[in-house]
Amino acid sequence: QLQASGGGLVQAGGSLRLSCALSGRTISTYAMGWFRQAPGKEREFVAAINWSGGTIYYSDSVKGRFTISRDNAKFSVDLQMNSLKPEDTAIYYCAAKRGGVAAQDRVRYSYWGQGTQVTVSS
Fold first, then answer.
1. Which one, out of 6, 89, 95, 102, has a CA that is 20 to 30 A from the CA of 75?
2. 33 near 45, Cβ under 8 Å?
């Protein structure tokens, strides 16, 4: 089970930190990802990290502004979001993928959290 938290309302240029906790499983065997879905749009890839944290991917739209990290001892993965823009407004979902290898394709993720709303005002 995945539980995401940390969303909220922030002004453009501000920062938020999302957290996702994985319960009931050994997080070190899973790659973790963050995706987002804006109203009327498809769910899109944001960031992914492999089981060890040694391989990380970002979408071009967030590269240089967002940082994904994980703490296997705490069964958690975080997404630090800086320099937020109104176009970052969306529901953010964390996801877990078996096997530990990071991926950008959402269909490869087996477990999903409930989502947390991020709203960036201009």
1. 89
2. yes
Which tokens go with 73?
């001892």
* 1-16: pLDDT as tens digits: 898 999 999 999 999 9
Kindly report the backbone phi and psi dihedral angles of residue 106, in degrees, each rounded to the nearest multiple of 5, phi listed first: -65, -25
**DSSP 8-state symbol, 38:** -
Share the mean pLDDT of the chain: 94
Say how far apart CA 77 and CA 33 lie, in whole Å: 9
Q: How many Å apart are CA 73 and CA 26, to the nearest integer?
A: 10
The three-point CA angle 22-34-60 to 5° equals 160
Look up residue 122 and give its two tokens: 């201009």
Q: Tell the residue number behind the tokens 């979001």, with chain if given.
A: 81
Give bridge partners of residue 8 from the DSSP assignment.
Answer: 118
